[in-house]
Predict the structure.
Amino acid sequence: MLKITGQIAQICAAGMSVFSLAAHAVTVTIACGSSGNDVEFCQKHAEAWAKKTGNTVRSYSPPNNPTEALALYRQQFAAKASEVDVLLMDIVWPGVLRDHLLDLTKYAGDATKSHFPAIVANNTVGGKLLGVPWYTDAGLLYYRKDLLDKYGLKIPQTWDEFAAAAKKIQDGERTAGDKDFQGFVFQAKAYEGLSCNALEWVSSYGGGTIIDADGKVTINNPSAAKALTMAAGWIGTIAPKGVLNYSEEEARGVFQNGKSAFMRNWPYAYSLSQKSESPIKGKVGVAPLPKQAGAKQGAATLGGWNLAVSKYSKNPDAAADLVLYMTNAATQKDRAIRGSFNPTRPDTYRDKEVGAANPFMASLEDVFANSVARPTTVTGLKYPEVSQAFWDASHEVLSGKAKAEDALKKLEGRLNQIKRNKW
Ligand code: GLC
């Protein structure tokens, strides 16, 4: 049990080693994720750390939606306080939370050398290491192997092939009596996840990354408009109108219930789909997201989570120790095998058990290596506003309230307004 009361914690400590622990045992509060098997794994390992060190861990449940979680932390940090010692930090947050996180450099030491350098660089702001990499994400196309076979289809390579396959399976299954069967589910709610999905469409069409590396707003272009128009065409044809309110877990709920032929989601959804109670166990394939006809490849947005320590923690040493335990090779291996969380340590990918549990991790190495970053480095503190403007514009197009060309023109103006003279 993770939420141990002070009393029980003392008993634990006494039971282990009265002399070494009594003076130093502390309580560290960790905000694990709150979706899928995130909580289960995070709590399990945090508890193992508590047992090993004689400390106590308390679990804090942040909102499931990363946009809301970020808002909550910012609110707490603005008061120079936080209810948590250790928090999960999205790969797009270091620039936003930079003034409120502990520099972990001295704690991490050489440990950072074992992680992908690009993620360590992403988490280093002004020379300070603000988070240790925990797992990395990229957008993937989940498909039903059995249904592609049933309808004589191949894994779709282009968006056109994809939409045609989704339609064929949806029509076939509905005719066969499954009236609410869907072709495709994805994340189109107005939040950070929609920015990730929309960036994939735009980028796969060669429409850039909203803002380029020099800080120029590039989103108002014909390729981006085509990409958003394509996605708007899916709503109510191959995807339910409800996707306009779906985040990752809603999409997974439909797909895992056997009610959709395709799903766009992150790696974590794989292990859940393979659980013994899953109706689609053994029927799921994972492929790169489709590309535009004629293009070399599609695009996957880079995601992922890191562990950070609040600058306002009263127990920074213990909190940092917990972070290093949670991100070590053994923990990442266990999370990869049992939770399909992509490790941030290249060595862990070479582990046979990891490969056997998650065939896609090796077969999609290219997808992970070439994933597209959101424009966080260049926009720094202003990234949340940028992303919100982008998901709002995308949501308007998807819900039929605006034409892509108009929405992107307006978005360009809004982004330049947020930028003012500089990012
Ligand atoms: C995943 C990604 C994260 C992204 C979020 C959006 O959790 O890892 O980077 O911001 O999805 O919903």
